[in-house]
Design goal:
Layout (H helix, E strand, L loop, with lengths): L11 H27 L5 H9 L18 H13 L6 H16 L2 H13 L4 E4 L15 E4 L6 E11 L6 E9 L6 E9 L5 E6 L9 E11 L11 H37 L11 H29 L3 H30 L12 H11 L4 H12 L7
Parallel strand pairs: 1-4
Antiparallel strand pairs: 2-3, 3-7, 4-5, 6-7
């Protein structure tokens, strides 16, 4: 299938990056990832190879070992790995969210401590925002951080749920809230919590989803952290938080686009070769048109993702917020439809382990649900873009 792009949208460097990552993806592919997930392991070899080639830290500053690029480059890496059947979900979390937040807001010491490792893949960081009782309402986050008046340490208490990769992450960037002395209200702040911190416990959630990256519920019981565990300025918490969420949405779009492209390419291949009557089934419009429609939807969603990445990398957080949300919604919908149509194209074979598409029915739903539901995105567009009143 053609993935040709106009140089108006992508530079020659971007096109070369796509081709190089696609070649790496082909060396591993869907079978590798399925085997790793099936054995309860992690895609360490692919992660290490992607790191060695400079792909994992392509968005991080050069002075800390990164590639000096942006989310535009990082999203290309994830999309192409996904199109080859072996996406790395932790790319959404470690370099995109945590790396971005630390690069933009961290202290010099935090940058020196974390960014080189995040860039070369030797260290990973998870991200903890979702809570059992807060859901999409981040204003209801109850994880609180208070100062120990004697030592100046922070004490963190609360619960998180559906946090990816905590078992392999060296630390988790936790969104907590501190009380504002002036107003008495709680304001969001981000804290780096090491994996082995006393009082920091995790429990794996049993998921139907077949993925190498596991999901966890976290309990923080008076986790004591040094004063410098707080990322950046205590008063800029909300700004810092949103700085990480736009890359998360752009990367989720890349994840969905890659998956949709992979499923579609398998279906097209099958439709070209499978003959039931006199011609390949792909000659029949009832088969061909839905696949063509899916291709169109994937291409349209990629355009919005490229726009969002460019706006973000240019420093337009407001413009990027709108585009990133739209890209996430469009890519998730395109992915779900592409996977569904691909399974349907293969008929019974679409449900076999041999063809490996059936498990993607569950996986494709992830982008519709996480990191934010399509309903919350439509709320965002209703209020922010259209200026309609809020219902909540």
């Amino acid at each position: 299938m053609s993935t040709a792009h106009s140089t108006v949208l992508e530079t020659e460097e971007h096109q070369a990056l796509r081709a190089a990552v696609a070649a790496l993806g082909r060396r591993y592919g869907r079978d590798y990832l399925a085997k790793v997930a099936g054995s309860g392991g992690h895609p360490d070899e692919l992660w290490a190879d992607a790191a060695k080639l400079g792909y994992l830290g392509v968005n991080l500053p050069e002075e800390y070992g990164g590639g000096g690029g942006g989310i535009a480059e990082l999203s290309i890496v994830l999309e192409e790995l996904g199109a080859a059947g072996c996406p790395l979900l932790m790319m959404v979390v470690s370099p995109a969210i945590c790396g971005t937040v630390i690069a933009r807001f961290g202290t010099e010491e935090q940058k020196r401590t974390w960014l080189p490792g995040l860039a070369d893949g030797t260290r990973t960081m998870a991200f903890g925002i979702t809570e059992p009782d807060a859901g999409s309402n981040s204003h209801r986050i109850t994880t609180t951080a208070r100062r120990d008046p004697d030592s100046g340490d922070w004490l963190l208490t609360g619960r998180k749920v559906f946090i990816s990769g905590v078992d392999i992450a060296d630390a988790t960037l936790i969104v907590g809230r501190t009380s504002d002395a002036r107003t008495g209200s709680l304001k969001p702040c981000l804290f780096i919590v090491p994996r082995d911190a006393p009082g920091f416990e995790r429990r794996q959630i049993d998921m139907e989803l077949q993925a190498a990256e596991k999901q966890f519920e976290l309990v923080l019981d008076d986790v004591r952290l040094p004063a410098d565990a707080l990322v950046g300025d205590e008063d800029a918490g909300l700004l810092q938080l949103f700085a990480g969420l736009n890359p998360e949405r752009i990367m989720t779009a890349a994840f969905a686009l890659g998956m949709g492209r992979y499923a579609l390419s398998r279906a097209v291949e099958y439709a070209r070769e499978r003959s039931v009557w006199k011609a390949p089934i792909g000659a029949h419009q009832a088969i061909a048109h839905p696949l063509a429609q899916s291709h169109v939807e994937i291409e349209l969603a990629r355009l919005m993702m490229q726009k969002a990445a460019r706006l973000y990398d240019e420093g337009d957080d407001v413009g990027a917020g709108e585009a990133a949300n739209m890209a996430k919604l469009a890519a998730a919908d395109a992915c779900v439809k592409a996977v569904d149509q691909s399974v349907h194209t293969l008929g019974g074979n679409g449900l076999t382990k041999e063809f490996g598409l059936a498990s993607m029915i569950v996986a494709s739903r992830v982008a519709r649900i996480a990191p934010v539901s399509r309903e919350m995105i439509l709320n965002y567009v209703s209020h922010q873009t259209l200026g309609l009143p809020k219902s909540y």
